[in-house]
Fold this protein.
Amino acid sequence: MEFRYLPMTDADKQNMLEQIGIQSTDELFSNIPGKIRLKEDLKLKKPANEFQLKKELASMAARNKHTIDNTSFLGAGVYDHFIPSVVDHVISRSEFYTAYTPYQPEISQGELQAIFEFQTMISELTGMPVANSSMYDGGTALAEAMNLSAASTRKKKIIVSKAVHPESRAVMETYAVGPDLEIVEIDHHNGVTDLEQLAKELDENTASVIIQYPNFFGQIEPLAKIKELIQEQKKTMLVVSSNPLALGYLTPPGEFGADIVVGDTQVFGIPAQFGGPHCGYFATTDKLMRKVPGRLVGQTTDENGLRGYVLTLQAREQHIRRDKATSNICSNQALNALASSVAMSSIGKHGLRKMAELNMQKARYAKQKLEASGFEVVFNGVFFNEIVVKLSNSVSTINKKLLDRGIIGGYDLGKNYPDLDQHMLIAVTEIRTKEEIEAFVIELGEIING
Amino acid sequence: MNLPNDLLYSEEHEWVKKEGNKVRIGITDFAQDELGDIVFVELPEVGEEIDADEPFGSVESVKTVSELYAPVSGTVVEINEELEDSPEFVNESPYENAWMIVVELSDEAELDKLLSPEAYQAFVEED
């Protein structure tokens, strides 16, 4: 069978056969017993030509519901945000798109500099002096932070708020198996971590307390109070998982004395993409710098005294440190980190703050409109861009009807929180217009009452 | 290879200097030469108990991180904080400025297991 994408001609094949000294390629498989060899053709459909194939794939893709033509109010960790057009242009450049790990600094300065910029921006947003070159995603970044806290403090108990993303907590459970860590979950009270319960659980065996800020419900956790509680235990670390866009407005966790700050940069320049890939970040203190998982890009000077970048502190990594390394990660999300860096640079420092403000303002407008229509928005604390609405019917039923009307509804909290059954977690980002928000409230009302 | 006569040595390339019921510990000239430029030294905390033959810290060079194995058991009473800012002391002055920890011995008899300068020299040349 001839394949038009394989460049070998019959003459090439003949030449190769002669070089090897055989008559046909069948002879290469002569030591595989005849009775286990497949004699008939594979049961595949007839090959399609390029045009037919494109049509078939296009019709499959057309079954997707896209945020381009459906208004999304779905958040819960993955958001519909503005992505500057320049992101695609920069990441599509083959020098970036096809770049492998920059182990050879002499031919990778562009890639290394881009990652260094990413690290710098994360460091500024989180208020932490050290940031690595990225992790796979926010969930595994949090699990790695958990492991680092246990390895560093040599303690096995991890306290985590139930207001941390359920999927992040599930990833933590998986990672806790190896080092045999004990995870204790704290309930929420009025949408934030129950501080009384936290105080009771905190003891000298606690490696870290893990909080999300803003939390899964969109509420802002009282990090100052939490740090104060933790401080009673000298060794216990404060680990914070944070939406980096929110950090454009909120006080950075570093200022509250967080030991490790992690999260996902999907909010900057990365589409929802059906759940991934996204891009985790990991930031920490100087004290923990040598325990950081993943890659670190450092700035240095070359033999001519010119500024250059390299992968540094590589002796920590698992391919050198082996079983003594704090993690087995030996990769990063370079292309997605680049997309986030380009988006953050393009939006700019002031633009980022403005973007965060718009998120907050629009979420407040949605809350206002919902309450005016008789809906109950639960939790009365300060929130970022997500709110929780109590509905009188199953959220999945309501979401099906919303989708028929071109609206992607919010997250069904009943899936993970029995006390929040029939409650919908709604996200309102900077690209939601006044008209879209109003239409959503009207449609929701019609569905509930209809 | 520099090998002071008044010290004892371990097969893990540490030197041990007896100071009453305490010992001062560091790594040998041979070790620092093998490791290359030292960039970081990780030491235990004062008050920590260490056990003979168990790792008590690590020393990092540009190409690797090596464990430091305790030549004796006891309690750490002093650590050399200078090494935090000047890890290069390990290369420049392994026996003087780059002492790492002082340990109060829990069992003086353990010193008998250590090597004399001649025995250590032979051990190194053997490899």
Notes: The radius of gyration of chain B is 13 Å. The mean pLDDT of chain B is 93. Chain B is about 20% helix and 35% strand.
